């Protein structure tokens, strides 16, 4: 019997893979900060003519110091794991959780490769290729490459809407490269806006929606939880006026200066921690006092109400969360600059992988509709 295990592919994450016994492996993840160490993604290849049972122990990055809070949170959460055979995503709860370790039991069907992960990826290479091909034949949407990542990967922007429309909305996902729930949500938004739905038509008539599904292509491709290839968290260090700016931030800002949005939706995502430290799903935005300064307070309140109605954000706070100063709303930050210069209202939305890729796509559509309603 012969199986092979690898994380050496796009968005794979496993820095050390050890064989422990017959069809028994250990895989150590690459983490970047304790709460975010839980992303793993690997494949098991069965070249045999019969099904093989195997066991994989996933251990969290040993180079990170975990607090007792992290350990307890990890131990107490029971999110589904996702596996993909022949292109179909399925979930499983068939694993046991120990101290920063997951024991996964798998049956790998004969002559199949199975991908196993905590966060079902939407692969950069495949999806951007699909967008390019699809939009070359589609007159509703336009495909742009607005710049390159540090390692030279194109930053793709899909622009959908009537060219006569003056008002832009900007949607960005994947600034944290492996937060695939947000990337699935962006895909949902693109598919919806290109569709024949009457609501989509109305939005296309009035606005131009610019969507960047992979704000941090290097992070996505390398399977990095937080940073770009330079080790910069470009979500938190997104001030385009700084002296040394990440190329991804530069490219995005160049677009914004040409086509300033009145609404900016920044999509992130959690894996599913139902009982863990952060059972989060929902919307976040800078505090209302922040928008009061720019005379946008009432519009923001309307957006909050509409978003709550449409997307029903579920979070442990049970309401839309306001950023603390440390979250990313500090002076000079991108959001402040957007509000000050262009009167832009910004929201983050974080779908949760618990309910799967399809549901993340539906949530993306609801978030867009909810936030746009006050502007229709
Ligand atoms: Zn994030």
Distance between the termini: 61 Å
Bound molecule types: zinc ion
Radius of gyration: 21 Å
CATH fold name of the largest domain, please? Aminopeptidase
Strand ordering within the main sheet: 11-12-14-13-15-18-16-17
List the helices and strands and how they pair.
Blueprint: E1 3-6, E2 16-21, E3 24-28, E4 41-46, E5 52-59, H1 68-76, E6 81-85, E7 88-92, E8 95-98, E9 101-108, E10 113-117, H2 124-136, E11 141-148, E12 154-161, E13 167-173, H3 180-193, H4 198-206, E14 207-212, H5 217-222, H6 247-258, E15 261-267, E16 282-285, H7 288-292, H8 297-311, E17 321-322, H9 334-342, E18 345-350, H10 357-372
Parallel strand pairs: 3-5, 13-14, 13-15, 15-18, 16-17
Antiparallel strand pairs: 1-4, 2-3, 4-10, 5-9, 6-7, 6-10, 8-9, 11-12, 12-14, 16-18
Helix pairs in contact: 3-10, 8-10
The structure holds zinc ion (ZN).
Write out key terms for the chains shown:
eight-stranded mixed sheet; Immunoglobulin-like; 29% helix; binds zinc ion; 10 helices; Aminopeptidase
Report on the architecture of this protein:
- The chain has two domains: 3-117, Sandwich (Immunoglobulin-like), CATH 2.60.40; 124-375, Zn peptidases (Aminopeptidase, 3-Layer(aba) Sandwich), CATH 3.40.630.
- Helices cover 29% and strands 28% of the residues.
- Helix 3 (180-193) crosses helix 10 (357-372) and helix 8 (297-311) runs antiparallel to helix 10 (357-372).
- Residues 325-331 have low confidence and may be disordered.
- The chain is globular.
- The protein has 376 residues and is an alpha/beta fold.
- The N and C termini lie far apart (61 Å).
- A hairpin with a 2-residue loop joins strand 6 (81-85) and strand 7 (88-92).
- The relative contact order is 0.13.
- An eight-stranded mixed sheet has the order 11-12-14-13-15-18-16-17, sandwiched between helices. The chain has a five-stranded antiparallel sheet with strand order 1-4-10-6-7, with no helix packed on it.
- It has helices spanning 68-76, 124-136, 180-193, 198-206, 217-222, 247-258, 288-292, 297-311, 334-342, 357-372, and strands at residues 3-6, 16-21, 24-28, 41-46, 52-59, 81-85, 88-92, 95-98, 101-108, 113-117, 141-148, 154-161, 167-173, 207-212, 261-267, 282-285, 321-322, 345-350.
- The chain binds zinc ion.
């Amino acid at each position: 019997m012969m199986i092979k295990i690898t994380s050496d592919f796009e968005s794979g994450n496993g820095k050390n893979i050890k064989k422990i016994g017959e069809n028994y492996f250990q895989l150590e993840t690459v983490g970047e900060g304790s709460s975010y160490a839980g992303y793993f993604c690997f494949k098991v290849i069965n070249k045999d003519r019969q099904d093989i049972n195997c066991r994989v122990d996933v251990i969290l990055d040993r180079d990170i110091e975990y607090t007792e809070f992290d350990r307890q949170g990890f131990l107490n959460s029971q999110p589904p794991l996702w596996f993909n055979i022949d292109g179909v995503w399925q979930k499983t709860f068939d694993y046991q959780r120990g101290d920063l370790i997951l024991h996964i039991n798998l049956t790998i069907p004969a002559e199949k490769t199975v991908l196993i992960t905590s966060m079902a990826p939407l692969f950069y290479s495949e999806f951007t290729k699909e967008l390019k091909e699809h939009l070359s034949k589609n007159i509703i949407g336009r495909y742009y490459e607005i710049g390159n990542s540090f390692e030279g990967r194109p930053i793709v922007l899909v622009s959908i809407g009537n060219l006569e429309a003056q008002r832009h909305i900007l949607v960005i996902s994947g600034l944290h490269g492996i937060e695939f729930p947000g990337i699935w949500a962006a895909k949902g938004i693109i598919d919806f806006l290109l569709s024949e739905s009457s609501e989509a038509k109305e939005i296309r008539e009035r606005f131009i929606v610019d969507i960047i599904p992979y704000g941090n292509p290097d992070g996505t491709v390398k399977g990095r939880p937080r940073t770009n290839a330079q080790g910069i968290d470009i979500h938190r260090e997104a001030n385009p006026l700084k002296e040394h700016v990440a190329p991804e931030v530069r490219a995005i800002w160049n677009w914004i200066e040409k086509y300033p949005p009145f609404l900016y939706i920044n999509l992130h995502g959690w894996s599913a921690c139902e009982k863990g430290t952060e059972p989060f799903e929902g919307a976040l935005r800078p505090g209302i006092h922040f928008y009061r300064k720019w005379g946008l307070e009432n519009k923001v309140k309307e957006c909050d109400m509409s978003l709550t109605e449409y997307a029903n954000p579920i979070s442990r706070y049970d309401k839309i969360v306001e950023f603390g100063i440390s979250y990313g709303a500090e002076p000079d930050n991108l959001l402040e600059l957007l509000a000050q210069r262009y009167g832009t209202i910004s929201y983050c939305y974080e779908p949760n992988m618990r309910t799967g890729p399809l549901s993340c796509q539906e949530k993306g559509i609801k978030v867009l509709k909810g936030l746009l309603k006050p502007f229709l």
